[in-house]
Amino acid sequence: xxxxxxxxxxxxxxxxxxxxxxxxxxxxxxxxxxxxxxxxxxxxxxxxxxxxxxxxxxxxxxxxxxxxxxxxxxxxxxxxxxxxxxxxxxxxxxxxxxxxxxxxxxxxxxxxxxxxxxxxxxxxxxxxxxxxxxxxxxxxxxxxxxxxxxxxxxxxxxxxxxxxxxxxxxxxxxxxxxxxxxxxxxxxxxxxxxxxxxxxxxxxxxxxxxxxxxxxxxxxxxxxxxxxxxxxxxxxxxxxxxxxxxxxxxxxxxxxxxxxxxxxxxxxxxxxxxxxxxxxxxxxxxxxxxxxxxxxxxxxxxxxxxxxxxxxxxxxxxxxxxxxxxxxxxxxxxxxxxxxxxxxxxxxxxxxxxxxxxxxxxxxxxxxxxxxxxxxxxxxxxxxxxxxxxxxxxxxxxxxxxxxxxxx
Length: 408
What we know:
There is one protein chain. The protein is mainly alpha-helical and 408 residues long. The chain contains 15 helices and 6 strands. It is globular and about 65 Å long. The strands form 2 sheets. A 3-stranded mixed sheet has the order 1-6-5. A 3-stranded antiparallel sheet has the order 3-2-4.
């Protein structure tokens, strides 16, 4: 117990170091007054959750199900069915179709209860499967160079729970994250748009993002996503915790708290965690959930021939060119036109602006990034002897130059 508590306290301190970059005091004051009613306190959540975790660890009893794979599959089948029911209920309420509203709502409520009853059990099963498959790759802890231990560190621990929203702020004249603030998970769309409108009046670009995961300890992983997304995200959030104890991750932490900004380091760290988590997630699905192994990604080329990835990269390049010429208003008009065009093609983005690209652009393997870092990391992965070798090599880097020098 003492070891677990020590680990928990250490990771809590890491989480509490988070904050935003230093901005002019008047900006901070105005921003604080806007977000104060909706701010999500990581500190309070950590304290409450860690206390609950300690009680569960001491007094709880983990009953292993007869079929762990079936339990997890059943849980995610509930999620898919609930999504369908919500769509049908919304259609009836909007007057677009007819149906037995009472029956649908009763089924939805029943499934919600069954899903909640499985949640803690599913968390433990997924943690176990991720831990075992990381171990098979030789990935145990970030200090294995000094401590030869077969025990995972940090302990893999996450909650299936709706994460907080994240307010992302970028300058209007360039794409760069200036500030990030966590907001309540329950905040409404009307409240989100009101916050963004008020923040934008401060002369910046803002976006409230609905997160799928968040690397607190335990990590948040949304309880409303698919099996594929959940495994990838649970692994990715653990990797962010793992990387904090490596040079790359520590420099990324300094970037996050505004001590030393480095967009390349942020991109390398986010992309590394994304790549490794997807590879581990793929192995787990093939091993335990083959029916989910080859599920299609949303970003594939549509039957119509429309390539969302290519379109987003072209939009990003054009926006960068506008901003480089100082044509801020033109860039914003262009993004809004393209947002409407994407909607006409079936890709609905609520708000496309500088803050959108600042947040999603740190994933160099995503369509919102034009950074060559993603290509370079993929090339280095192909040259690496193993996934662990790839992870250790990149995690030890302290600059973009290190990445370039490592590619043969």
